[in-house]
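Table S2 (continued). Query chain:
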Amino acid sequence: MALTAWRHPRPEGVAGLCVGAGSNPPVHWRRAKRLARRIQAHARRHRLAHEVVTSPLSRCADVGAWLARWGWRHRVDAGLLELDFGAWEGRRWDDIGAAAVSAWTDDFLQHRPGGGESLAALLARCAAWQGAEALVVSHGGWMLARRWQLESPGVAPDAARWPAPPRYGQCWRLSPGL
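Corresponding output:
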């Protein structure tokens, strides 16, 4: 079995906001249940164990809770958290301002946006995560960092080459030999 990760469902009321590890907006229960059903079907199709690991934030953990209602083993792991944007959390990107965002993109690897977590720290957290064989519900930033490590080992990321995040609810296989 490989590491297969789904990005959490779209949370409520986050359009235009900076949302990371320090924000916990709700996901409508129907969206959480719908993604849980997709994960359940994937596991059935591939004959996988009924176990899921999620970020502790409700936008991920709610999906795991649905699976647990249906007899799955659900484990919560803080190693799957999104990047922490510090003081930027919950603010409108427009209010954060171009100068602050440029300071981050100019030193993309080491800068701590909003005084939060650097991309280097997120990459280290992804590398240290123990779960090479798992079904995971996590965040776009975590999934991007994990994919970067697999596709560009030893290459320092920069903002110009950083890919777009997965869509809400999208599934990625995040194992060597993508």
